[in-house]
Amino acid sequence: MIGVYREFEGCTRLMGHVLRRLRVLALPPVAESLIRQIYFTGASATAGMVLRGAFLGTLIIAYVIDVLDANSALAVKILIWVVLREIGPLIAAVLVIQRSGTAIATELALMQISGEVANLRRMRIDPRDYLVVPRVVGVALSTAALTFYVQVIAVGGGMLLSALTIDASLGQLANDFFLLASPVDFAYSMIKSLLFGVAIAVICCYHGLHPPGVSINAVPKAAINAVTQSTLLVMLLNVIFAYLVFGQAFFGLVTAKL
Amino acid sequence: MSHADPAAGSDSDSRHPAHARVALGYEPPAGEDGRIWIPKGGNHRVAGLSDARKARLLGAVLDLKSELGARLVLLGLEVDGLGPAERAALRARVAFLPADGGLLSNLNAWENIVLPLGFHAPKRMHGAAAEVNGLLEELGADPRGLLDKLPERMSAYEKKLAGYVRILLENPELVLVEDLLGGLDAADRAGAAGFLPAYQARCPGGTFVQIEGSPEA
Prior knowledge:
The structure holds two protein chains of two kinds.
Chain A: H1 2-20, H2 28-43, H3 46-68, H4 72-113, H5 116-122, H6 127-165, H7 170-180, H8 183-209, H9 218-246, E1 248-249, E2 254-255
Antiparallel strand pairs in A: 1-2
Helix pairs in contact in A: 1-6, 1-8, 2-6, 3-4, 3-6, 4-6, 4-7, 4-8, 4-9, 6-8, 8-9
Chain B: E1 2-3, E2 22-27, E3 36-39, E4 42-49, H1 51-63, E5 71-74, E6 77-78, H2 84-91, E7 94-97, H3 109-120, H4 128-138, H5 143-146, H6 156-168, E8 174-178, H7 186-192, H8 195-202, E9 207-213
Parallel strand pairs in B: 1-4, 4-9, 7-8, 8-9
Antiparallel strand pairs in B: 2-3, 2-5, 5-6
């Protein structure tokens, strides 16, 4: 229990440091590190993520249409509720954890164990400024961008599939989509994915900078802790967000009177 | 070169320390050996330290935190009496070159060299390329062959060289170099011998201290 409290406190302090020290992003080495992080998380992962997003989005729509025998309006509502609000940010977050979260935790744990973090301190550079701030900002922006890609591809793929499988044209589906979708849905998913990205990066950086030991065995342990905890936190944030914004959680199983 | 051998006690300034003239003074807690008293300027060598004592000395100097009962004087200032801002300003005047060069493995030599400059003097980044090239040439190295290399592809000497150029860019008043010649062959040792003249030319009056472990440790 004390360990959990320490990790929570450590992550909170790290988050506080990031918020206080955002100005270091103007320094050339930190700006370069930010660009690298955005490239690694947001750009080089795009093809794989978009492909997976398209598969999942299309699959969800195909199942729902088949099970519910849906018309065009219902198909579009499901696209908005499920893909735009929930699945898009979640898929992006899970893929970011898989790819960048493990990389961050492993890289930082190796740097800590090999003495490179200590070398930074000896150069009078705060490791949190150089290693954590650009990663948190980069992963947050990249998660939001990937969420947008996944949403566009999954919704587009879903509408294409719907047009082929139900009695509705693509134009009609698109018309329904623009009538039913509101800016709130988009803002909700973007804010949520930004928060997911921040949570993932802070937890992975924390575990990377605090590996459970000084031997090489501590590196995979740090990565496992980072992935497990960031996945849990993303799920928890998703539930809290859904409850606060729409008064429902777990896809409507828990509801509140708003 | 003077020798500040901790096992042998201290140099002539130790009985009546004139702080203003002390570059590095370290007195361990009462009852322990290892008093070090190094005057400002010139080249000094602290030899025969065990790994533990070397780590304690470097920890005290680089973190500006002496152990309970120990005393640390750095560049004429008693560290214990300084506030956080004064400590930070004092620490900026001291540089350390670890035995392995202290490079980050995911940055190439150029990025490693200018990393502290980017943090502490970003305005100097524009002229950094010419400055780094000039320093490397002065130390007998070919900048084109070195600057793109990642540490994993550098020799032990090239790592020390990159780390040393990084230090020189900051113009420190006190340079601590750990095992300068350790792990180098004869040709590289000749190259490393040029480190001190390059420092003295760049920072006249600066203090260069080589810290070496005990051969039997």
